[in-house]
Amino acid sequence: MPHSHNAAQKFTPQAQILEVREYGEGNVNDTFLVTVEEVGGSAHLTSASEAPQRFILQRLNTRVFPRPELIMGNLRVFTEHVEARLAKEPLPPERRWDPPRVLLTGAGEDHWRDPAGFFWRALTFVPDAESHYAVQDLDHAREVGWALGLFHKLISDLPPDRLADTLPGFHVTPGYLRRYDEVLGEGTSGGNPENSKNSQETDFCRRFVEARRAWASVLEDAKAKEELPLRPIHGDPKVNNVMVDTATGQAVGLVDLDTVKPGLVHYDLGDCLRSGCNTLGEEIGNWEQARFEPEICRAILGGYLSQAGEFLTPQDYDYLFDAVRLLPFELGLRFFTDYLEGNVYFKVRYPEHNLLRALVQFRFTESIESQEGAIRALIRDFLKR
Ligand code: GN1
Ligand code: MG
Predict the structure, then answer these.
(1) 29 Cα: distance to centroid of ligand 2 (angstroms)
(2) How many beta carbons lie within 10 A of that of residue 119, not counting itself?
(3) What is the pLDDT of residue 187?
(4) Which CATH fold topology does 2-126 show?
(5) Residues 352-379 as b or e (16 or more Cβ within 10 Å = b)
(6) Residue ranges of the chain with per-residue pLDDT less than 70
(7) Pocket of ligand 1 (CB under 6 A)
(8) Rounded CA gap, 35 and 83, in Å?
(9) How far apart are CA 362 and CA 209, in angstroms?
(10) Domain assignments of the chain as residue spans, ordered by start
(11) CATH superfamily ID and name for 138-383
(12) So what's the pLDDT on residue 383?
C-alpha cells in the first residue's frame, strides 16, 4: 500500500478509501485528495458533525517546517478565533466563509507520524469551491482582494504573540540576501558548482539583485522603527490559495494556512498582488513577457480595502508601493538562491526550473518599477476615499 493511502486511513479508520491522488501544484508540501466511501462517522472532525467524502491529506515538508506541531497549534488558535469572531459579527447572509478545518486521527491526534518519521495531517475539503492559478477577470480579482482583507480583519484582534513562528525568517528580505551572499561566497558548502555556471541569465539575476540591495530592507526597517506593526498574517495568499464558490464566484476562504504567523500585512498584500497582477503565471517559459497589470491591482486593492481599510493606518499606505515591488523581488531572490544552491528548497521538474522562476519574478519587478508613478497614484486614490 502506498504511504499516502496508509496515512489517509489513519484519519478515517472505518471508511473504505476509494482513491488517493496527488493534488495541486504546491512547491513545498505533498498534497493529496482522498475520496472515501460514503459511510457515516468516518473521518474525525474537530468540530462539525458531518463525515466528509473527500478530504485533503498532506505530508508536510519538515526540511522547510522543522516543527510541524507548531503549525497545528497555530491552526487551532486561528480557527477558534475566527469562529468566535464570525459568531459575534456574522457575514451578510449571501456570503459564506468556509476555511479548511483540521481532521483528527482515529486516536484523536491532529497528525500522524509514519514509521519513517514523516508528518501527515488532514484537512476538510472546502465544498463546492475551486481555485484558479491566475486571475480570471476583474470580478475574480476583487474577490481575491476581498478574501485577503476579510482574512486580515478576522484576525486583526488576535494578538500576534498567540501564534508561533512556524518558519523563522519567512519574508524577511535582508535574511534572504544574507543567505544569497553565503551561497555565492566561495567555499560555502551550499554552493553548487553545476548551478553556479555563469550565463547571460545568471549575470542578469546577479546585477538585478545588486542594484536593489540597499532598498531591500525597506519593510524590515519600517518594522524596526515601529512604523509598521506586527500582525497575524497568512504568509502565502497567492491567487490559487483563494477558494471561490463554483456557482457564484464569490470567495469562500483561504487555504494553505501553514505560514499563518506574526508578520506584516504588507508581506501578504504584496504577495497577493505579485500573484494576482501577473496573469501569465509564475511558470511562463518566455519570462520576458511577465508584466504587472495595474487594472487588476486596482480591483484587488479595492476588494482588500473594502475589508481591511478600517484597521490600516496612513503609514501602512505609505509602504504599500514598496510592498508591491518587494515581494516579487524577494521571491525571485529566493528562487535564484535555491538554483545556485542546487534546488534544495523548492520542488523542481528540471535543473534550471528555479532560474526560470527567478527570471519571471525579476522581469515582473521591472514592470512594476517602470509603472511606479501610476501604481502610487492608484494607491493614493484609495487613501483619499
Ligand atoms: C511556496 O508550496 P507553495 O506553492 O504553497 C512558498 C511561497 C512562495 C510560493 C511560490 C513555505 O508556496 O512562499 O510564494 O511557493 N512557500 C514556502 O509559488 O516557502
Ligand atoms: Mg504555500
Answers:
(1) 8
(2) 21
(3) 39
(4) Phosphorylase Kinase; domain 1 (3.30.200)
(5) bbbbbbbbbbbbbbbbbeebeeebeebb
(6) 1, 38-52, 186-197
(7) 26-28, 64, 236, 256, 259, 282, 331
(8) 27
(9) 9
(10) 2-126, 138-383
(11) Aminoglycoside phosphotransferase (APH), C-terminal lobe (3.90.1200.10)
(12) 86
